[in-house]
């Protein structure tokens, strides 16, 4: 804590700067040499932060509410100080239920909750101010009605957090509720925890290896990615040792799983090296940032509460690997990867870099689900009994000009694999193809029993279909995007 002489020296420096720049402060709004200051309903002192004594007195003198409007006023005042009250949501549960439509009936349970909330206000502790050079400890707890968390440092309380569970979440398993408590607590205290190492303590033994578990439930898939970017350790301790958690287990056991990342430290080291970001930081320090959305806290430049990343290939690749390829996120697609990154970070080419990274990810390309309808069972063509009874036809187009011919008509026997090749001009039609087919195939082998082909305009023309209907030949055409039906001619085309 600064000494009195140091305080006077700082005050003298500030007043001299104001005098040199011809700036004035209104004396009625200034206070000097105080050991504590009242600010927005709180009393800030060297010992920490406490509730305003006048507000506490107002809560104690509050009479029993007679209607929902009076109850909302009481809960609004006490809710403002919920960070001072451990388990606020659970204590106030009977009162919040009365706010439902046509449900206001004051009972003995409501009176007990009303008095318990007053007593909690009186006995609330003085919260310590955070010291970002020390390790934070986050203790979480979940019950059948709500969840709670305590943030502390060196056994000094910094803030409480509690939240009432929905009816749907109350029916979930104990594992899910405890997991949900950790998720909500990290989100609540994100401004304290992001960029700093912290410890999570829970009394649910199965959560000790949370970061090593496979993603099996929808809740895990939805909540685990929210932990990306944090540097923390999960400790399991019995309820007897962990006073913020319920005593679900009394066996003395302790284990932990570590999740370490040096991303934030690398970002902090690289930020001053970027001339553009350094100019923004200097402008912010001078009180004239280029945009009001900028903020600079704990060595991190932020844009709309997101950490600004300098154009550094190494850091960007580490972020993309952490938010796309790590076991927690499981090689997600472009939209999901972008959503996770943009919730905490910002750099100009984020979408371009994310798209490029996902498209080059071999595991994602191999494992992404098909969006097409499942194919039916394959029905192979019957094996021919005699040569030149069952044939296949196709055309090879776009060839270099040779004496006016740029197309090759391919006819192959499906049994003997013998083939006939005949040239065609680019302006061929069903009549010229039919004449060539008769001169090349029919005069040597007769009309075939079946012809396998694709759906070329020649093969679906009325002339072609009527010709082979008269000859008794069956036309078997492949379906769209299914060339394997005409595999014989396709294989011969590759050879040619």
List the helices and strands and how they pair.
Blueprint: H1 4-20, E1 36-39, E2 42-45, E3 48-51, H2 53-60, H3 68-80, H4 88-91, H5 93-97, H6 108-122, E4 136-142, E5 146-153, E6 156-164, H7 167-170, H8 174-188, H9 190-193, E7 197-202, H10 218-223, E8 231-236, E9 255-259, H11 263-270, H12 275-285, E10 294-297, E11 300-303, E12 306-308, H13 313-325, H14 334-342, E13 345-346, H15 350-359, H16 362-367, E14 390-396, E15 407-413, E16 419-424, H17 430-445, E17 450-453, H18 462-471, E18 474-477, H19 487-495
Parallel strand pairs: 4-7, 7-8, 12-13, 14-17, 17-18
Antiparallel strand pairs: 1-2, 2-3, 4-5, 5-6, 8-9, 10-11, 11-12, 14-15, 15-16
Helix pairs in contact: 14-15
**Strand residue content:** 15-25%
CATH-defined architecture of the largest domain: 2-Layer Sandwich
Number of helical segments?
Answer: 19
- CATH C-level category of the largest domain: Alpha Beta
Give start-end ranges of low-pLDDT stretches.
244-260
InterPro entries: DNA/RNA_pol_sf, Integrase_cat-core, Integrase_H2C2, Retrovirus_Pol_polyprotein, Rev_trsase/Diguanyl_cyclase, RNaseH-like_sf, RNaseH_sf, RT_RNaseH_2
Organism: Vigna mungo
GO molecular function, one term: nucleic acid binding
Pfam families: Integrase_H2C2, RT_RNaseH_2
């Amino acid at each position: 804590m600064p000494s009195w002489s140091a305080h006077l020296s700082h005050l003298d420096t500030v007043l001299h700067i104001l005098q040199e720049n011809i700036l004035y402060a209104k004396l009625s709004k200034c206070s000097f040499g105080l050991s504590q200051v009242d600010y927005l309903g709180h009393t800030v002192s060297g010992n920490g932060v406490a509730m305003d004594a006048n507000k506490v007195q107002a809560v104690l003198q509050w009479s029993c509410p007679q209607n929902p409007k009076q109850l909302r006023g009481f809960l609004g005042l006490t809710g403002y100080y919920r960070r001072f009250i451990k388990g606020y949501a659970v204590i106030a549960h009977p009162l919040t239920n009365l706010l439902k439509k046509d449900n206001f009936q004051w009972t003995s349970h409501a009176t007990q909750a009303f008095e318990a909330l007053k007593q909690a206000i009186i006995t609330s502790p003085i919260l310590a101010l955070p010291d970002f050079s020390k390790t934070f400890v986050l203790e979480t707890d979940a019950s059948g009605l709500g969840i709670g968390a305590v943030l502390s440092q060196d056994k000094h309380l910094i803030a409480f957090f509690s939240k009432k569970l929905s009816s749907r979440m109350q029916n979930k398993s104990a594992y899910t509720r405890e997991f949900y408590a950790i998720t909500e607590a990290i989100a609540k205290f994100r401004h304290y925890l992001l960029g700093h190492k912290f410890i999570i303590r829970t009394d649910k033994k199965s959560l000790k290896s949370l970061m090593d578990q496979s993603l099996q439930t929808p809740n895990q898939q939805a909540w685990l990615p929210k932990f990306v970017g944090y540097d923390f350790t999960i400790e399991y301790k019995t309820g007897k040792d962990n006073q913020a958690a319920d005593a679900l287990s009394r066996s003395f056991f302790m284990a932990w799983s570590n999740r370490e990342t040096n991303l934030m430290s690398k970002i902090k080291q690289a930020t001053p090296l970027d001339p553009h970001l350094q100019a923004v930081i200097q402008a912010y320090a001078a009180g004239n940032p280029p945009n009001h959305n900028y903020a600079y806290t704990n060595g991190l430049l932020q844009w709309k509460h997101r950490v600004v990343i300098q154009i550094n290939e190494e850091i960007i690749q580490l972020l993309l690997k952490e938010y796309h390829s790590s076991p927690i996120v499981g090689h997600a697609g472009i939209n999901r990867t972008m959503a996770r990154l943009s919730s905490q970070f910002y750099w100009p080419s984020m979408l371009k870099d994310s798209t490029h990274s996902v498209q080059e990810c071999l595991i994602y390309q191999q494992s992404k689900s098909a969006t097409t309808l499942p194919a039916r069972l394959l029905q192979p063509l019957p094996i021919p009994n005699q040569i030149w009874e069952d044939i296949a036809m196709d055309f090879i187009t776009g060839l270099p000009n040779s004496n006016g011919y740029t197309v090759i008509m391919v006819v192959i026997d499906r049994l003997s694999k013998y083939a006939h090749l005949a040239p065609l001009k680019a302006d061929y039609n069903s009549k010229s193809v039919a004449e060539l087919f008769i001169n090349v195939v029919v005069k040597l082998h007769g009309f075939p029993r079946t012809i396998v082909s694709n759906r070329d305009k020649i093969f679906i023309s009325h002339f072609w279909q009527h010709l082979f209907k008269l000859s008794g030949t069956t036309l078997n055409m492949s379906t769209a995007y299914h060339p394997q039906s005409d595999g014989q001619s396709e294989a011969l085309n590759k050879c040619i």
